Structures are given as C-alpha cells and as structure tokens.
Amino acid sequence: MRQTLSLAFSLLFSLVSPSVSLAQEEAPDALMKRISEEIIGEIRHDKHIQAGDSAKIAALVDAKVIPHFDFRRITQMAMGANWRKANPRQQDRLTGEFKTLLVRTYSGALASYRGQQIQFLPLRAAAGDTEVTVKSRVKQAGTEPIAIEYDLARTGREWKVFDVRIGGISLVANYRSVFAEEVRNNGVDGLIALLSKKNAASVALR
C-alpha cells in the first residue's frame, strides 16, 4: 500500500505547471490533462530524473508544482479546529514546514514514474463553480487502476489544488489525526518542532 501511494503521488506532481498564462482560461480537467502530458514527456526524456537526481527533481518540483498548490489551505485543513489555536506567526511556520515536508516526501517518489498511463474522466461541474473535483485513473500493467481525485479551487483566475485522494484516501485527512495528537500532547509549537525535525532529518539523509 505504501509503495502504491508513493507511486500515485509521484504522478500527482507531474500534473501541474505554471506554463499557462493568466490570460488563458482552461477547464481544470483539460489543464491538468494537457500539463500531465508535457511533464511526463519531460520525465521520459530526462535520464537524470529517472536516475533519481535530487537536484533535477527539486528544480522540477519548484518550477512546476509549488505555484499550483494552496499549501496554506492544505495546512489549515490538516490542522482542523487546531488552526485557530495558532497565532499568525505559528500559522506561517506550520505552513512553511508542512510545505517543505510534502515537497521533499513526494519529490523522492517522482523518479519512480515508469510509463504508467493516466486517464482523465469527464468533469462533472456547473458553470461558475469555484471548487471542482478532477477524477483520473492511473493504469499500470499487471495491477488494478489507481483512482486519483484532485480537489481544486479557483483563486482569482487560477486553479489550485487543495486536496488529493488516492484510492479514497485523502492527503489532508491522512495528516489530520497525527497533527491533532501532537497538538494535544505538545501544543502548536510542539507540532512545528516535530515538522522541523522531520525536515532536518530529510536534509541529513540526502
């Protein structure tokens, strides 16, 4: 299960890019499908990424992923009611540390892409909706397709991802219980320290 999630999230990070001008507006499913093809093409042709070059992967994530995720909203949702216990400085620290953790965690999975096929399902949304769910399936020979759903919200004229579900498992919900337990035991500063420690350990292992 852990390997499946790692692979699925590696594909997630190949689905977004800042290449679309704000003057252009695409349906969120059309945007993600088009960009997925662009980024997968880059992965297939870059032997350094395929070999796990951390610098190359980090550059790809920084350029293509970070601008299109609403990390503050993701952090707020993962915190749940505990978000209100954090002051503005703590909220900024939490968002920064959680962003770093997510990016480093799934950057390591990016190099595991090995030709899986992504099929996007028709978007079910009404005109004027500001939040939508884009559904897709990842097909790999010899295994059942993996269902991946992306929740996006319109921010100005952009669409940004604020949650992902892999086989029904929410990225946000996956962290919520861990965050709640840490805040209950050690407070908001304890959670910040825990995330910082994990990020520091990640750096040390590289």
What can you see in these coordinates?
The chain is of the alpha+beta class and 206 residues long. It has a single domain (2-205), classed as Tgt2/MlaC (Nuclear Transport Factor 2, Chain: A, Roll). Helices cover 54% and strands 17% of the residues. The protein is built from seven helices and five strands, in the order H-H-H-H-H-H-E-E-E-E-E-H. It has helices at 2-12, 28-45, 47-50, 54-64, 71-79, 88-110, 171-205; strands at residues 117-120, 131-139, 146-155, 158-166, 169-170. Strands 1-2-3-4-5 form a five-stranded antiparallel beta sheet. A hairpin with a 2-residue loop joins strand 4 (158-166) and strand 5 (169-170). Helix 1 packs across helix 6 and helix 4 (54-64) crosses helix 6. It starts with a helix and ends with a helix. The model is unreliable at 13-23 (pLDDT under 50).
Shape verdict? globular
Main beta-sheet strand count, sense and barrel state: 5 strands, antiparallel
How confident overall, as mean pLDDT?
81
Helix content: 40-55%
Name given to the CATH homologous superfamily: Tgt2/MlaC
Structurally, how many domains make up the residues? 1
**Unreliable parts:** 13-23
User: Beta-strand level of the residues, as a percent range?
Assistant: 15-25%
Number of strands: 5
In angstroms, what separates the terminal alpha carbons?
24 Å
CATH C-level class: Alpha Beta
Structural category = alpha+beta
